[in-house]
Amino acid sequence: TINYRTPVEPKQRLAVTLRYLASGDSICSLFFTYRLGFETFHEKWDFPNCLGSVDGKHIMITKQPNSGRPIQVGDFGRKSDGEVYANSPLGRAIASKTLQVPQDAFLLGGKDLGKIPYIMVGDAAFPLKPYLMRPYAGHNISYQKEIFNYRLCRVDTLCGYRCMRGIAIQASRAGQEAVSVREKFTKYFTSVEGRIDFQDRMVAARPT
């Protein structure tokens, strides 16, 4: 017998399409909002236990005459993407572990690493947290760290981010748990079980 996945209902497909056309949200944001595609990040983009990706979007808004009292959407432009995310409902929920996400799970073939939390990925503007991975900082980093950055940037690219090899990234202070989670992903991505065939070639070909 063949077991097929339950297809997404037409009305939900329509809702996602209309939301995308109306808001311009990234594909990753839509996945997370509608709880669709968690497994896609592993099966198609080779990043297991990934819920999605976060980024900031700057929009110029001009208050029109006689338009009433202004309302706040998001936050002021002077605040960093990481600060806006941390103070958002999503950021607070995932930090306080009140967001309904899958339980920590083993990576395929990586039981020796223990159970790994489900995480989101972001660029250098975001802090390293146990639930939020960001690239390693610096130009002269190890091969293993280069591979991690490449694997993370594959998800970033899906969401329209720009992630280049050797980019100057400001190092951030991070707790030991967050460092440990990133190190486990790094080890897994260079293991026999977790590596992908073309990652060495892609890392070598990326611009410095």
Q: Label the structural class.
A: mainly alpha
Q: What is the helix tally?
A: 8
Strand order of the largest sheet: 1-2-3
Order of helices and strands: HHHEHHEEHHH
Biggest β-sheet strands, sense, barrel = 3 strands, parallel
Protein name: DDE Tnp4 domain-containing protein
Layout of SSEs?
Layout: H1 10-23, H2 27-33, H3 40-43, E1 50-53, H4 81-86, H5 89-95, E2 119-121, E3 132-133, H6 143-158, H7 176-189, H8 199-205
Parallel strand pairs: 1-2, 2-3
Question: Mind explaining what this structure looks like?
Answer:
By secondary structure, this protein is mostly helical. The chain has one domain (10-55, 71-205). The protein has 8 helices and 3 strands. It has helices at 10-23, 27-33, 40-43, 81-86, 89-95, 143-158, 176-189, 199-205; strands at residues 50-53, 119-121, 132-133. A 3-stranded parallel beta sheet has the order 1-2-3. The longest helix has 16 residues, at 143-158. The termini are far apart. The model is unreliable at 164-171 (pLDDT under 50).
Précis, in short:
The chain is mainly α and 208 residues long. It has helices at residues 10-23, 27-33, 40-43, 81-86, 89-95, 143-158, 176-189, 199-205, and strands spanning 50-53, 119-121, 132-133.
Features:
single chain; mainly alpha; globular
